[in-house]
């Protein structure tokens, strides 16, 4: 179905994919500001264009006209290349996303073609590869700026990608087991009777959390945390280079949402009530409409999270990725593989539930017994007083928190105020280091 289009038609389809992503990004920025303003009882953008719909375009023009500053200590070549490395791979993943069925060809300037730029036997692995390359732009931006806070933001983003890419890949593996293919168009075709969000709900939930972490969006926007990193990896950037980082973030939002629609929400297929009563719902240009509606719903989910949840601490964020998402996704993959293997051996449904359910109950019982013994050992250990280690609040020249077994030194406190007395800070009635001044 692919490789037969003339070169100019391939260019037209590539331009369409690029324009589709750009228009979706421009709309998403305005929509996000409008929705968050509505949640916070504000007006939101209402100056540029009808209902403020051209606000994101005006912001882009404003950023391009701002002063382009290059910091003195930056590695100039890498500093200029980093925004490009972050933005370009974000556009590449859309090439394998199907906007319509492979067998339904549409007419473009008299030529019949499919509603997909191209397809690969390993299309999902291609998406993972392009998403992984984009992180290099953020890491290089933090390193090349020659500043401390951007470097910390780049390292955070690298650790974030490693942590959540594993859970994302394992959630994809369950989809591969059910569809029998890594091709995006074949995965959508395999969902003709039931979407994978119903068959694989745990994989879908793991992917939803992982995709928010992958895109550095709230509540997982730790690489850009203005509370402790000022602005993160893009602190030293301005003008069009800063705009490219923001563009890469929103394009990644569109990409991961399109992947979620393709792998779990039926792709271009119409929802059940429409497809059941209308035979032409999945033909012609209509599949593009269903795809866009599902995509916008997931983008609204991103906006809803940003306007609702506070930012996590970094240790909580890493704990969620390594100690929750990865173990849950791996156990779920083992269960899915077991069910598929039993079905291939022609076991009936009751036997499958018995075998798989028995294994789950056995694992839970073993973990429960292990927790009981572990608590008993902790209770015996608590009876022995552990030696208290000396705490240096400025160890190595930097303020550090106390480690386990260490206690903070007593904080100087003021003497309680007596009725009729006026206590002046620094006066004779204050207490310093346990002595009266």
Automatic annotation (TrEMBL):
The keyword Transmembrane belongs to this UniProt entry's keyword annotation: yes
Compartments where found: Cell membrane; Membrane
UniProt catalytic activity: a quinone + NADH + 5 H(+)(in) = a quinol + NAD(+) + 4 H(+)(out)
Biased composition annotated in UniProt, kind: Basic and acidic residues: 379-392
EC number(s) on file: 7.1.1.-
Enzyme class: translocase
Region (Disordered): 379-437
Entry GO CC: plasma membrane
Principal subcellular localization: membrane
Residues passing through the membrane, by range: 6-31, 78-100, 120-143, 164-188, 194-213, 250-268, 288-308, 320-340, 352-373
Keywords on record: Cell membrane, Membrane, NAD, Oxidoreductase, Quinone, Translocase, Transmembrane, Transmembrane helix, Ubiquinone
Gene Ontology MF terms in the entry: NADH dehydrogenase activity; oxidoreductase activity, acting on NAD(P)H, quinone or similar compound as acceptor; quinone binding
Pfam family, one: NADHdh
Top-level lineage group: Bacteria
Task performed by this protein: NDH-1 shuttles electrons from NADH, via FMN and iron-sulfur (Fe-S) centers, to quinones in the respiratory chain. The immediate electron acceptor for the enzyme in this species is believed to be ubiquinone. Couples the redox reaction to proton translocation (for every two electrons transferred, four hydrogen ions are translocated across the cytoplasmic membrane), and thus conserves the redox energy in a proton gradient. This subunit may bind ubiquinone.
Family assignment from sequence similarity: Belongs to the complex I subunit 1 family.
Subunit structure: NDH-1 is composed of 14 different subunits. Subunits NuoA, H, J, K, L, M, N constitute the membrane sector of the complex.
Protein name, UniProt field: NADH-quinone oxidoreductase subunit H
Species of origin: Streptomyces telluris
Source organism phylogeny: Bacteria, Bacillati, Actinomycetota, Actinomycetes, Kitasatosporales
